[in-house]
Amino acid sequence: MEVVSPHDIPVTFEDIGGLDDIIEELRESIIYPLTMPHLYASHSSLLTAPSGVLLYGPPGCGKTMLAKALARESGACFINLHISTLTEKWYGDSNKLVAAVFSLARKLQPSIVFIDEIDAVLGQRRSGEHEASGMVKAEFMTHWDGLASSTASGGSQRICILGATNRIQDIDEAILRRMPKKFPISLPNAGQRRQIFKLTLRDTKLDRSKLHDGSSAFSLDTLVRLSAGMSGSDIKEACRDAAMVPVREHIKAAKASGQSMRGIRSEDVRGLQTDDFFGRKQLRKIEPEDDEPRTPESGKTEEVEEFEDADGEVAAQA
Ligand SMILES: Nc1ncnc2c1ncn2[C@@H]1O[C@H](COP(=O)(O)OP(=O)(O)O)[C@@H](O)[C@H]1O
Ligand SMILES: [Mg+2]
Q1: DSSP tag of 206
Q2: N or C, which terminus of the chain has less Cβ within 10 Å?
Q3: What is the CATH number of the domain that holds 179?
C-alpha cells in the first residue's frame, strides 16, 4: 500500500489520447463531488461521489494511466492499494490491513483508494479458494458499505474506491453492485489512435519532405490505418521501435564512413518516416514487386536468397 502525493505523479489528463469524453465524466462524477462537496452534497444527497467506480476493458488501453491522472488532477489523497499487500501476507493480518486502509482513507479524505487488477483481489469465489481469502473480501465489503452508511447519517465521507480490471467477467456480483459507475475503456478507434500517435510522437522529429511519388514521407493517416486493432500501449511500443530506426541508420552510416561516434549530433539524424514503422523498410527491400524504386544497397535481397539456399542444403542433408 502506498499513499501517493498528487504532485509526484507524472501523468496528466493531457497525456492520455482519445479518452476526452471519459475524462470529462470522471471529472464530473469523482473529482468535483470529492473536492467540492459544498457544491454537490449540500445540494442533494444524491450528488455525493459514488463510493465505487470501475474502469474496465482490454489491457494497454489506458486504465492505469487514467487512474494516475485522476489522482494528480483531483488533488485528493490517493491510496494505491497493491494486491500483493492483501494477498501475500498472513491471512490473519489481511483483515487488519483492510481495516487500516479504510481508517487511513477516512483520516486523509478526500481520498481515492485505487485497486488495480481488482479481479485478482476481489474476484469471484473460485472452488478451492482459501476460506480466509473470502473473509478478507467480506471485511472489505463491510467497510465499503460503511462509507455509504456514514454519509446517510450526516457526516459525509469523501472516499471513493476506484478499481481497474481487464476481466470484468471475473468480478463478484456483490463487488460490481458496489461500483455503480462503470467506464468501458475499449480498444482505440481510428480517431483515438490518431490522438495517441500525435501525443506519443509530439517531441519526435518527423520527416516533412515528399517522396518522389509525391506522397509524404511521414503519413499519420497511413499509421492510423495500419494500427487498426492495436491498443494504446501497442502504439507506444511501435513508436519506440520506429524512433530507433533513423538513429540506428545514422550510427551505421557514420561508422561506415569512419566518422568518430563523438562527432554524431542528434540534429543530423533524419526525421521519422512512415516506413520506419512496423518493419516496412525491410519488407520493401525483400519484396521487389513493391513500387518503391530499388535502392543501390539492396544487398538485403541477396542475403535472403543465401539464407534460403542454406536452408535448402540443410533440408537436402536431412
Ligand atoms: N489512450 C492512451 N493515450 C496515450 N497512451 C496510452 C493510452 N493507452 C495506453 N497508453 C500507453 O500504454 C501504457 C499502458 O497503459 P495502461 O494505462 O497501463 O493500460 P491498462 O491499465 O489499461 O492495461 C501507458 O503507460 C501509455 O504509455
Ligand atoms: Mg493497468
Answers
A1: B
A2: C
A3: 3.40.50.300
Same domain, 114 and 213: no
Give me ligand 2 centre to Cα 165, in Å.
7
Q: What is the pTM of this model?
A: 0.81
3-state secondary structure 276-306: HHHHHHHHHHHCCCCCCCCCCCCHHHHHHHH
> Between β-strands 77-80 and 2-4, what pairing exists: parallel, antiparallel or unpaired?
antiparallel
CB 151 within 8 A of CB 157: yes
170: domain range? 2-186+300-317
> Which of ligand 1's atoms lies nearest the C-alpha of 65?
17
Cβ proximity of 11 and 114 under 8 Å: no
Residue 194 and residue 307 in one domain: no
How would you write the pLDDT of the chain (318 residues) with one tens digit per residue? Answer: 678 877 788 899 999 999 999 999 999 888 888 888 777 766 666 667 778 999 999 999 999 999 999 988 888 888 998 866 666 655 567 778 888 889 999 898 888 999 998 887 676 655 555 555 677 788 888 888 887 665 444 556 788 899 999 999 988 888 899 898 999 999 999 999 999 999 999 999 999 999 888 899 999 999 999 999 999 999 999 999 999 999 999 989 888 888 877 777 888 899 999 999 998 877 777 665 544 444 444 434 333 333 333 333 333 333
| Residue 131 sits in the same domain as residue 232 | no
- Ligand 1 atom nearest residue 15's Cα: 4
Asked if residue 58 has its Cβ within 6 Å of ligand 1, the reply is: no
Rounded to whole angstroms, the maximal C-alpha distance in the chain is: 85
Structural domain count of the chain: 2
Clarify whether residues 97 and 237 are in a common domain.
no
CA–CA dist 232, 216 (Å, integer)? 24
